[in-house]
Structure formats: structure tokens, C-alpha cells
Amino acid sequence: MPTEILIVGAGAIGAFYASRLTQVAGTNVSVICRSNYKVVKASGFNVTSPQYGDYTFVPSNTFANPDEARRSGIQWDYVVVSTKALPDVSDDSKILEGLVHDKTAIVLVQNGLGVEDPYTKRFPKASICSAVTIASCAQTSHGQIKHNRWTRINSGPYLPHLDVGKPQSTDVRAIEQNETFIRLLKEGGIKDADAYDHAKLQLVRWHKIAINASMNPSSVLSGCIPNNAMSNDPELARHLKGVMEEVLATAPKILGTALPKEFATSDAILRSTQRNTSGSKPSMALDWEQGKTMELEVILGNPIRIARERGFEMPRMQTLYALLRMAQETRDKAKSKSKI
Question: Record's family (predicted)?
Fold first, then answer.
């Protein structure tokens, strides 16, 4: 029997990983599209990559919405969610109703903290794999995926009971499904893919929060400038380092374990950003420019609340959150008035 994989949210990241998973023999990869449905249904995805070359990926099935996927009757082994996490707008775990059975593994390739909670509540018997990726991808137009020079993905089973108690009998299945998913990615050519345990993956999430919580809101508040421009400005670089250091100092206190030595320091992150001359902007900046809702809660709000519940404050991050949340509310109110 082939391994059936469904990608929910076939934008740049989802489509790119789908295009690599489909290279694996015995694997069927289907997608649920949104605005790009007509193009992908007709012609698939055209992928350009300096690492993998130029190729066309035609999904096994292209669905216009979750209902079409449900009506297909396919029993999914993996449902990969690569949509933006916007809990202040909607609960996207609802999308998966009727697509997940007891042996399905849900893989969350999403930014931020706390993204797993809605899925564990709605699907208590399903395995949850929490994945963190750093990938330079863009959908330049419908169905056109541009992959740049680097890609990394780490995934681990989400087993929060291990934070306070003992392992459960179902843990083995979640661990095995996570390891299998990473193996499939490696077989598809993703060399920098690693399976982590629950604890280390959460450390990875906090480490990426240090990057996202510094770069994303700072770009928006400084006029949506690229990462490279921020890191090369002396005052902004000092600010970015301060935010990162605040997060990296708080995370071990919350998780009860030190960050691994192999994790990049704030100085190393800034040096890497200074060398990146691609002109790339953080996702929040792109969302702001397009008038879209930003991932404020999972990148800023949730970490602040998690820290505060444990008696820790992160004033630098809280300042960014307060300013940007109000800016978004003010913009949205103005848009609503203009429609009246």
C-alpha cells in the first residue's frame, strides 16, 4: 500500500516539501489549494531550485477545499499542515475533521509556540508531529515555486505529558511516525532533515522564536525593510540582538534545560543575516504590505503569555507585541470604516 500524504495549505512551503516527498517511490502526495487551485489543477507546480534544478510536480490529487478531500475517501497516513497559524482569526484544526483517523499523523509545519494545542484537543488519538523549518521559498505567481539556497526542517513528536509525567503507551507510535516522515524527506533529497525528541523540538521552537520575534515585528515597524538592511544598521542590530538574547535567556528557565551548544547564538544569527543579500523580508512585513493578518499571537503573544504564567517577563518582546497589535487593530478598523 502506498503512503498517502495530504498537504493542507499548498503555498510556497507546503508545495515545495510536497514536491520532494513525491520523489519517493510508493508515496502519493495530494494537496488542498486555495487561490492557486485552477492553475495547479491544470498544470501542477513548476519548481525552480539551484539545488534540485527545475521540474514540474503534479500532485496525485488536487483538491479545491477540504470537502473534496473528504469525499475522496482516501485514508491519509500523514496530513501536513503548512498554513499560517492565526488563532485570533480561526481554528484551523476544524479543517481536518473527517480527514484524520486514529492512525493518521498530523505534521504541523508552522511558526510559533502553542500551535499544537488545537489539534491535540480536537484529535486526541492522532499522533502530532511538530515541525520547524527554515526554508527560502516563495510562490512568485500561482503554481510557480522559487526555492533558494537553503532548507532545513526538524520534526519531533508532540508529547506534552512528558513535561510533567511519564511516557504513555501511544508514544512509540508517534515517535515512529515522526521518524518515518523525516526518512521520507531525506529520501526526497532534503539532506538537512532531523528527527528530534519532544523536548529538543520545543527548544528548537523557542530558538526560532528568538529569530522571528526579533526580525518580523522590527521590519514592519521600520518600514518593512529586508532582514539584511536591519542587521547592517548599528542601532537596529543592537535592538535585534537584545530581543534575541531576551528570548534565549528566558527559554531555558521555562523548559528547565539549557539550549544545545550547536544552536546558533544571536551574534551568529546576525552575521548570517548580514551575509544574506537576497533582499528577503520577514513574513510579517510581506503580510503587512499586502494588508493581511500577521502571525502576532503564535510568534509574540503566546511566548509572552507562556513566560508570564511561569513568572517571567520579556519586556522587549512585549513592547513589540503591544505596538504591532495596536497598529494592526487600527489598520483593520480603518479598512472596515472605508467599506461602509
Answer: Belongs to the ketopantoate reductase family.
The answer to whether residues 271 and 227 touch, using CB atoms and an 8 Å cutoff, is: no
Q: Quick one: average pLDDT of 205-231?
A: 96
Q: Compute the Cα dihedral for 227, 321, 91, 116 and give only its sign.
A: positive
What's the grid cell of residue 299?
Answer: 510568534
pLDDT tens track for 43-71:
999 999 999 999 999 999 999 999 999 99
pLDDT of 28 higher than 80: yes
Pairing of strands 27-32, 3-8: parallel
Residues 6+ positions from 233 with CB-CB distance below 8 Å: none
Give the integer Cα–Cα distance in Å for 325 and 296.
7
pLDDT in tens, 267-289: 999 999 999 887 888 989 999 99
Neighbours of 134 (CB within 10 A): 12
The pLDDT tens digits of the residues spanning 162-209 come to 877 788 888 999 999 999 999 999 999 999 999 999 999 999 999 999
The C-alpha cell that represents 40 in the structure block: 495547479
Q: Which residues contact 176 (CB under 8 A, 6 or more apart)?
A: none
Q: Can you tell me which residue has the cell 512551503?
A: 13
Question: Which spans in the chain are helix H?
Answer: 12-21, 37-43, 66-71, 117-122, 171-187, 198-221, 227-232, 234-255, 266-275, 283-289, 296, 302-309, 315-339
- CB-based contacts of 238, cutoff 8 Å, min separation 6: none
The count of residues in the chain is: 340
pLDDT band at residue 148 under the 50/70/90 scheme: confident
Whole-angstrom Cα Rg for the chain: 20
Domains of the chain: 3-196 (3.40.50.720), 201-338 (1.10.1040.10)
Nearest residue to 9 via CA among 77, 76, 65, 75? 65
Mean per-residue pLDDT over the chain, rounded: 93
